[in-house]
Amino acid sequence: MNREALLQQTFDMPTKDNVLAYLSGDGLTKLFKGFTSIFLVPMFAIALFLGLWSAGAQQVQTSLGTLPGPAEVWQQTKVLYTEHAAERDKEAAFYERMKKRVDKAIAANKPAERIAKIKARRYTGPETFIDQIFTSLWTVMTGFILGSLIAIPLGIVIGMSNTLYSAFNPIIQIFKPVSPLAWLPLVTMVVSAVYVSNDPMFSKSFVTSAITVTLCCLWPTIINTAVGVSSVSNDLINVSRVLRLSWITKTVKIIIPSSIPMIFTGLRLSLGIGWMVLIAAEMLAQNPGLGKFVWDEFQNGSSNSLARIMVAVLVIGFIGYMLDRAMLMLQRSVNWDKSATLR
Amino acid sequence: MSTYLHIDHVGITFPTDTGPLTVLEDVNLKVNQGEFISLIGHSGCGKSTVLNIVAGLLQASKGGVILENKEVSDPGPDRAVIFQNHSLLPWLTVYENVRLAVDQVFKKTKSKAERHDWVRHNLELVHMSHALDRRPDEISGGMKQRVGIARALAMEPKVLLMDEPFGALDSLTRTHMQDSLMEIQADLNNTVIMITHDVDEAVLLSDRIVMMTNGPNATVGEILDVELERPRHRLALAEDPRYNHYRAEVVRFLHERHLQKASAVVPAMKNDSDENAAGLRLAAG
């Protein structure tokens, strides 16, 4: 390959011809069209949405004042960030003080257990909005990964055996439409009864939320994986029979790669549902996270509460979108069917 | 010398909703080592079923398949199959597709380096060395089928089974593939059973052409020995009266079967014309 073509492919650099084409009328028209569809149209739609929101919100009176418009929401976004920064400063100051006390205690030759006690003291300030975001993200990822670790192998086994499929199908079909929130009381009770330890690695509320997410992540992944596995092309199965591939090799080399697209369809559905359910579960069970933030603000009922809830709503939406994009990127990187359009 | 491969009075019956359906009845065929056999017959006569029974992918209800004095009833790499739609694993490259088969068949008898060389050698044989790292969806249909052939050859099968290997290709590519196959066959002298619809292909490639009667209850109708010396060249043969004679023989057989088939389905055809008439009425209205 010549150097110019290589550079162009690697860095998407315009070659001489392309530059000339762009400078000619035709190129400029194309450029403008691309710019319009990628940038102008969405920008226009967003501006329109903000305008309608701003105008519409002012018409709605609530007991906490009018509904917040984009300006108030932006204002509160900044406030929430400032609060977070202030909280971090306080925390840093706390640990600074603790360090000094430890130094002093060592200098005064205090007994070791006393020093250890001081050292063990942790900062207990309120969780800020940003902290809640990370709590929720960590919870949803834990629940999702746990659910996938159960659902993918189960889906593969169910997809490979007609008997197991008939055995599991009614159970799956009955549990699938159940809102995981219905499980929440049961999960809470079971976790508080079973997960007992003096020095728990995770807090109970975290375990409850994560298991609730797991419960709703199971079904789409199981079903899609099973469908993917059972629809592996018969010819490929024949290839594995002619080659006398062992059960393991057949699964790893043929069945799993072949069902990767379907597995990912299930995973993306699961993660989307998991994220939605987590927020609701946090609201309902008062477990730390974005849901609790929303509920606390609602109970708080200050004049800023609605704007702060709106910030949370937008952040929840944005994170959900980013989670899906991340799954899509992962899917693209492992998908062998390059001709498939994934969106 | 005893027969290399014996398809011994094979019959197969499938259960259907309307009772058992005997697709094959008493198919008997002896194949010598290094022989190239074509199976030809009308669609649905059970050619593929014969091939699948030899491959072990289907179980015969009666009779059996004997390869080198041993009965074979399950699939194995000693009877490599080349499928019509190539059946390459789309997520593996050309090299990896062949390597999977080589690793499986020679995992105990060949070292890693030897297996690598063997994969390269077989892909060279089918002229695919330039595309080792391409995936199946990045190469043409003919190239995919070449890789499928390389994969089958790499297993060093005792019998090579081809199920309409070039059926899905355009005629120009098919011509190339047939020439390639003759070249490889001259080198390796494999025992081959090939299913085809193409009369020219059958005469050009085969030592014997096995013509099958129409199903159900299909069996071997006639066997035609093609005594044309090798190497064969399609241009020279086109003028050869013997070639045209063989060709005419096969066409005659197929034509007669076609007439039989037509007379057997007269009631169905009557229904067809009724439907056509209804269709016309609909179109007119």
Low-confidence stretches of chain A: none
Biggest sheet strand order of chain B reads: 6-7-8-3-9-10
Which value, in Å, is the CA radius of gyration of chain B? 21 Å
Structural class of chain A: mainly alpha
Low-confidence blocks of residues of chain B: 266-285
- State the domain count of chain A: 2
Helical content band of chain A: over 70%
Please identify the top-level CATH class of the largest domain in chain B: Alpha Beta
Strand content of chain A: under 5%
Report a brief summary of the structure.
Chain A has 343 residues and is mainly α.
Describe the structure.
The complex is a heterodimer of chains A (343) and B (285). Chain A is mainly alpha-helical. Helices cover 80% and strands 1% of the residues of chain A. Chain A has a two-stranded antiparallel ribbon. Chain A has two domains: 71-89 and 97-120; 129-334, MetI-like (MetI-like fold), CATH 1.10.3720.10. Chain A starts with a helix and ends in a 9-residue tail after the last helix. The longest helix of chain A has 39 residues, at 247-285. Chain A has helices at 3-11, 16-23, 25-57, 70-107, 112-120, 129-160, 162-175, 180-194, 204-230, 234-242, 247-285, 290-300, 305-334; strands at 61-62, 65-66. In chain B, β1 and β2 (19-31) form a beta hairpin. Chain B has helices at 47-55, 94-105, 112-125, 141-154, 171-188, 199-205, 234-239, 241-264, 266-284, and strands spanning 5-16, 19-31, 36-40, 62-67, 70-72, 79-82, 159-163, 191-196, 208-212, 220-225. Chain B has nine helices and ten strands. Helix content of chain B is 43%, strand content 23%. In chain B, α3 packs across α4 (141-154). The chains are: A mainly alpha (343), B alpha/beta (285). At the A-B interface, α10 and α11 of A face β6 and α2 of B.
